[in-house]
Hints:
The complex is a heterodimer of chains A (526) and B (141).
Chain A: E1 2-4, E2 12-15, E3 18-21, H1 25-33, E4 41-44, H2 53-56, E5 61-63, E6 89-90, H3 113-126, E7 154-161, H4 172-182, E8 186-190, E9 193-199, E10 206-212, E11 218-222, E12 225-228, H5 234-241, E13 265-275, E14 288-289, E15 295-302, H6 304-310, E16 315-321, H7 330-342, H8 349-361, E17 376-384, E18 393-400, E19 406-411, H9 417-435, E20 439-443, E21 457-459, E22 490-492, H10 506-525
Parallel strand pairs in A: 1-8, 2-11, 3-4, 3-12, 4-8, 5-19, 12-22
Antiparallel strand pairs in A: 6-7, 7-15, 9-10, 10-11, 13-17, 13-20, 13-21, 14-15, 16-17, 18-19
Chain B: H1 7-19, H2 44-50, H3 56-69, H4 76-85, H5 91-96, H6 99-115, E1 119-122, E2 125-128, H7 129-140
Helix pairs in contact in B: 3-7, 4-7
Amino acid sequence: xxxxxxxxxxxxxxxxxxxxxxxxxxxxxxxxxxxxxxxxxxxxxxxxxxxxxxxxxxxxxxxxxxxxxxxxxxxxxxxxxxxxxxxxxxxxxxxxxxxxxxxxxxxxxxxxxxxxxxxxxxxxxxxxxxxxxxxxxxxxxxxxxxxxxxxxxxxxxxxxxxxxxxxxxxxxxxxxxxxxxxxxxxxxxxxxxxxxxxxxxxxxxxxxxxxxxxxxxxxxxxxxxxxxxxxxxxxxxxxxxxxxxxxxxxxxxxxxxxxxxxxxxxxxxxxxxxxxxxxxxxxxxxxxxxxxxxxxxxxxxxxxxxxxxxxxxxxxxxxxxxxxxxxxxxxxxxxxxxxxxxxxxxxxxxxxxxxxxxxxxxxxxxxxxxxxxxxxxxxxxxxxxxxxxxxxxxxxxxxxxxxxxxxxxxxxxxxxxxxxxxxxxxxxxxxxxxxxxxxxxxxxxxxxxxxxxxxxxxxxxxxxxxxxxxxxxxxxxxxxxxxxxxxxxxxxxxxxxxxxxxxxxxxxxxxxxxxxxxxxxxxxxx
Amino acid sequence: xxxxxxxxxxxxxxxxxxxxxxxxxxxxxxxxxxxxxxxxxxxxxxxxxxxxxxxxxxxxxxxxxxxxxxxxxxxxxxxxxxxxxxxxxxxxxxxxxxxxxxxxxxxxxxxxxxxxxxxxxxxxxxxxxxxxxxxxxxxxx
Lengths: 526, 141
């Protein structure tokens, strides 16, 4: 059932078994798992089925840290949440992302990749992806295959997306609304903004929710279990706002709520790769749509073994064609290249001379020193993991929104370990390219580069870490079941529980975790 | 692309033609792993090594950038010594090789450089020490 909460009589008291706050990827995934279950579910969503600017403006906040996307637009208050504007890229976290790594302070999940594996498999069709394989060998064709590196230092990986051509990636609200509205045990309340989470005096049990509509309607919800699924900024915000009993905010006895805010850093232009080996295809590394309408992309990364040995963060490198070079046939290519050089359109002349040097040393002796068309010149960029940083945080400001709630202040901070790790990662990639006779790498980032905005760095709008997971209540907000420490019936879903972030886009993992939480709650309620 | 061949290079090219692929008479291979004989300005090994390049302009351009980044290597004898030190038989390995074999030796040495992290950064490009030094050598000839 779908209800516009604005039409509820004022001061209605709703009673249910499980109340889910937020109808984004996590909230909808959990609700779908409860469809037709022998318990009642209430799904509260701030937004409506369509975009409403007044509701969206409730997301406004202040940024005092690193430059960031407009806070008001970085998440969506609409049924389906941020899946209404996401890029759809999915891949699982790597094994070492879950490990405690002594060069990554704050690292270590209370579960392993193997624990999440069955949930990743279940998340695959939910995210409307292809076959469950992220091994490029399973996707290769005679014309599209992993670059033939030697040894085990560099590997290739696969990303998938339900985006195909003009079709956007799966929007959870549109795709799954009917599943939810058809389930007799689920009621969705739109235009419902949770103002506060009430607890008993000991603050160890949630007793209800205060909910309001912009129209003025107010109501309460009482449930046996509550799931916070509002996203990496609104999850901590609501906990901090719920401070009637626990003055520092709910679940915040150790001042961790809102801390460790992280996003992924994407740098689109970190340098150039020249593939000088003949007859090598890089087609696998350029997004393509496989037969069943799933977009496949591939990337390069260091192996887990190499990352452990070198004490590096995880990152992945994407390749892109240098389309403005526009080579055609051999002689024309040389002319165009010469022109481009003279007009300063190439990144540096050395690329041209180096290519010829490589051809000489590789004994490619043709009248024209090898056809330039044979050399693929590719830009590359990278997604990189950030180090958990407790000083990077979301906190409450003094400004208030239309519902009287304190707005958030975002203070995103990044250290320098990420830059050092990325430089070393790219250096190893350069070594391996030479070792395999594939070509050469030019790295346009060094110790003196402005950080983190060198190479076109932008945040990925993946809000993570602000209610992090840890078995020790002194080091985390939620335990390994995503239950808030010290509160018997409050759980958190979404990427705010990630203790580390990897390079993988967050949605696929948060959907897997949501499935795992749903299974846990099913055991409790049935 | 036209090449400007200066008088020094003309003499070098003439020397290359005369050397062909033959071992230079009178030169005994040095013992394995021993230091090579220091080069003189007319060291035939210098010409032999530089002769792997057919495009001198490109090699010199890369070499010039390398020597800017590593000015301490701007000595012909040092470059040759370093290049030879990677071969178990030292300079004799290069001197005894015909052109194709020489190229193979250098190619393998390049790959070994990358495998062992013997790389240099030349304007952001990750190059093997061998290829950078070979290019550097062309600048000094």
